[in-house]
Design goal:
about 80 residues, about 80% helix, mainly alpha, about 0% strand
Amino acid sequence: METVEIEMNDSVAKKWRNSPLAIRKSLEKKFEEQIEMVDRQIHFQKLEIILEEIGKQAQQNGLTEEILKGLLKDE
């Protein structure tokens, strides 16, 4: 595990420090899950952009849906 610092207003910071350890651990786990979810979404968005670019380049190079279906059918 690695420790990170997060800035927050004084009131929330005080509430955090005064929270029971079990509550803090639970919130830390939820925060980790949120960060992982955001990271997956970012990677998925990047993949969508790449796939859209590949599709545009394929169309510019003359690949049509019919040609693609024919190529896939031959396999």
